[in-house]
Design brief:
mainly alpha, single chain, ABC transporter involved in vitamin B12 uptake, BtuC
Length: 351
């Protein structure tokens, strides 16, 4: 079908297609070629390490976006669900010798079960009270890990074996890259297709007005619980990948502030969109890398500033970025990206 200017569709199937134009198909092919062909061949181990962390963060952010961005349930305990997945994988790997291919689905199952338990109060409470219940869950999980004895190793940390594929241990950045990125792509495709189903549309109805959605016949409690479960499944997968990627996990890797930054970066990326969750994950990790480069320069320019003061620059930068986006671009990077795509779609006719 010719599209001389704009996009013209003749059926609902064409209008709702994931990739609507030949140009977008071409760009998608180029993206996958760069992601799985170009970047691993030319990138350094340091860059691949950053990409691995971004891939894990994308999976975690996709889960939070389904819960908060689509279903409207605010969670400030997402780091706890990631910790559940990480420690489940580490415990099964360290104490029982399970391989990665068994610990990953087990971590997702346990984290999803925790999500169901936390989501049960959503029948009676909502809004700010749901957020407080997830906060309470975070501290419960932290207490259990710290007092887990030999099972969790408390404050000492718990080791976790590297994944193995056909007997070969995946212990390099490039090998882990080709494990993490396909899982992140599959998670993105799954989340995108979920939002196009009746459940995704029901999540949006609950987010916009849960009372009206209930009058329309939706089971509000079932939908909220399902959103918690799906979000926790993604968090469990991210935690499992993180544990096997690092080889050692400690309780300090899952602070409460990370849950808050996840929400903040979701706002920066664009809440309520899959692309926004990906943008938010990139923003979260790239800002952290920017701090690594900037803080030594600050210490050299202002020697009087203590090391702790320079370290606090991370929180200042993250907070400043979130405030700027709330004021100047409240719909996030995804909104700006959609404007750019629209300008290309209607070019050369600006009207």
């Amino acid at each position: 079908m010719k599209r001389p200017c704009g996009t013209f569709d003749e059926s609902y199937a064409q209008d709702l297609a994931c990739v609507r134009t030949p140009f977008r198909w071409t760009m998608l092919v180029v993206l996958f070629a760069l992601l799985f062909g170009g970047i691993p061949l030319v990138a350094s181990d340091y860059f691949l390490g950053v990409m691995n962390l971004i891939g894990i963060t994308v999976i975690a952010m996709l889960g939070l976006n389904i819960l908060t961005g689509y279903c409207g349930q605010i969670s400030i305990g997402h780091a706890a669900f990631i910790a559940v997945g990480a420690y489940t994988s580490a415990i099964l790997s360290e104490h029982l010798g399970w391989p990665f291919w068994a610990t990953l689905p087990s971590a997702m199952f346990v984290s999803g079960l925790m999500g169901l338990i936390v989501g049960l109060p959503s029948l009676r409470i909502k809004g700010f009270y749901i957020a407080i219940s997830t906060l309470a869950f975070h501290y419960i999980i932290i207490w259990v890990i710290l007092h887990g004895g030999d099972l969790t190793k408390g404050v000492w940390g718990l080791s976790c074996d590297f994944p193995k594929l056909f007997g070969m241990e995946l212990d390099t950045e490039m090998e882990m890259y080709f494990l993490i990125m396909p899982i992140a792509v599959l998670g993105t495709a799954g989340a995108f297709n979920l939002t196009r189903t009746k459940f995704g549309r029901a999540f949006i109805a609950v987010r916009d007005n849960d009372i009206a959605a209930e009058f329309m016949g939706y089971n509000i409690f079932k939908l909220k619980a399902l959103a918690f479960i799906i979000s926790s499944l993604y968090a469990g997968a991210a935690g499992s990948l993180l544990a096997h990627y690092l080889g050692m996990i400690t309780i300090e890797q899952f602070p409460l502030i990370d849950s808050i930054w996840y929400l903040g970066m979701l706002i920066v990326g664009g809440m309520g969109s899959i692309t926004g969750a990906i943008f938010g994950a990139f923003a979260f990790r790239l800002l952290a890398q920017l701090v690594i480069y900037i803080t030594p320069l600050i210490g050299q320019v202002i020697p009087a500033v203590s090391v702790s003061g320079v370290a606090g620059f991370t929180q200042m930068l993250f907070g400043t970025v979130i405030i700027l986006f709330l004021v100047l671009e409240p719909r996030g990077l995804n909104h700006r990206w959609q404007i750019i795509l629209s300008s290309f779609r209607i070019w050369p006719f600006p009207y």
